[in-house]
Predict the 3D structure of the following.
Amino acid sequence: MNRKSFFEKLKEVIVLLAAIGIVLLFLSVTHIGCPIKWVTGISCPGCGMTRALWSAVRFRFGEAFRFHPLVWMVPLFFPLYLFWERIPGKVRKGVLWVIILAFLLTYLIRLCSGGDPVVGIRPYEGVIGRMFQKICDNHGGRL
């Protein structure tokens, strides 16, 4: 990777971090939390990651792992992104599959355990479920 493309990648990482900061600010001001969970009532595989990262930044690592067990992977994404073109194609594909499978497996374990305070399936708590309930209430429970 030549010097210019490294700095271009670094600039992209900085822009990405700024965008994440803006989204986090919006979510904290609106108190929405996870947008997917807010709309559907169903947690996504990344649910809890924002809180986990915030806890890790404050050196509360136990709390961070309770919010999302894969929080330790996030710092690895930035060097991976910066040097992505230097990594052979088969290795890149393998890395992507490992990340995807790790998130899906962790998600399924958290869903099936039933005791996870962050991850759950509660469609009646989402915007869609509440709207559906309101419609049913307005029609005497009949559609």
